[in-house]
Amino acid sequence: MTGRAAAMAFVAVMILMPVTLPVPVLRELVQERFAVSQLQTSLFMSINMIGAVLAAPLAGALADRFGRRRELIVAALIVDAGVFWGMTAPVGFGWFMGLRFIEGCAHIFALSLLLSVASGYAPAERRGRIMGLVGGGIMLGVALGAPIGGLLGRGGPLVPLQAAAALALGAAAVSALVLPRVDARGESGSDARAIVLALRRNGALAAPLAFAFADRFTVGFFTTTFSLYLSTIHAFSAPRIGLLISLFMLPFAGLSYPFGRIAERYSRAGLLCAGSLIYGLGTASLGWWPAEYLGLLMAGLGVAAAVMFVPSLIMTTDLAPPEIRSTALGAFNAAGSLGFIVGPLVGGLVSQSVAAGAGWTAGYRAAFAVAGVSEMLCVLATLPLLLRLVRTGRTT
């Protein structure tokens, strides 16, 4: 089982690296290449998530109805590779963003089904460590993408996109070879009406889905607003931006497996709330830290993110009946994708609006405050439901 879990984690790394490869060259790739505003540049990191919101539940529904998850993952990754390559073509901004939308559909389709494979492969008593290992692979892929994208960006802003296409194609090949077959179909027949009814009957899923939204909402600030903040205010180079983002993502990735094991034994709700509060406070303060201490802050935020990420993922599998587990994980990814849509847009809108009257430093500080406070508000809003779920034994 350990070998299979490691293989799934490796596939997760390959699927997620393309997400942050373009981040360090965002200004050159979008803003300067197409002569658009910072808000339109932020839209680049949101438009693919609009596709993801649509595709993630569809992926779960198809898997619950038909099985054959491995084949669907391979097909989605081949599409993802083709679209990444298409974005390097000399097209207009509208076509470029349309391709980005399709890329988001293909990417999240593959990721949702990979999580479904991992969840179905893991027995309940070992689900924390396996989901933690795969979750760590997801974060490691995101962490590696930023510094590698910064280095590749020295060769031009299109090089990270070309590398993303190659990685997606490689992930398709590896998936075909190493992923286990977990092809069980939903026990109750998962047509669209049955799926909607099942999700309505499991309203407790609102808690982990709310955290998925809030967490990815803040990550949207880091992948877009934070990158623009570093280049605009501190004049950081692309490699240095990539390094700072990796200082956040590497502890996130490395500690996901240990915290997955901890979540098997201790309170998932407690870990989720504690990590979210610390993470929210740190994010809200980001704009006030001197440049030389940003690395320390980002590493601390990465640790806090690891504390909260895997418990929310495991809680989703706790609360979902087996016949809709793929759909629930698709909904988890859709909620996160929706957060990723809103995050960069809100970050761009707040920073640009405040900067118009008070300057860019104040604008970015306001944006990071919005991100951090949103995470803390999520804890306060979901705490009554979480306490009720713990009391009734539905989660820990």
Describe the structure.
82% of the residues lie in helices and 0% in strands. It has 396 residues and is mainly α. The protein has one domain (2-179, 190-391): Growth Hormone, Chain: A (Up-down Bundle). The protein starts with a helix and ends in a 5-residue tail after the last helix. Residues 185-192 have low confidence and may be disordered.
Which characteristics define this entry?
Growth Hormone, Chain: A, 396 residues, 82% helix, globular, single chain, mainly alpha, 0% strand
**Number of helices in the DSSP assignment:** 14
CATH topology, what is it called? Growth Hormone, Chain: A
Secondary-structure element order, N to C: HHHHHHHHHHHHHH
Task: Give the CA-CA distance, first to last residue.
Answer: 25 Å
* Tally of distinct domains: 1
What general outline do the C-alpha atoms trace? globular
CATH superfamily: MFS general substrate transporter like domains
Strand content: under 5%
CATH architecture: Up-down Bundle
Which secondary structure elements does this structure contain, and how are they paired or packed?
Elements: H1 2-20, H2 26-34, H3 38-66, H4 69-86, H5 93-121, H6 127-152, H7 159-178, H8 192-201, H9 206-233, H10 238-265, H11 268-284, H12 294-319, H13 325-358, H14 360-391
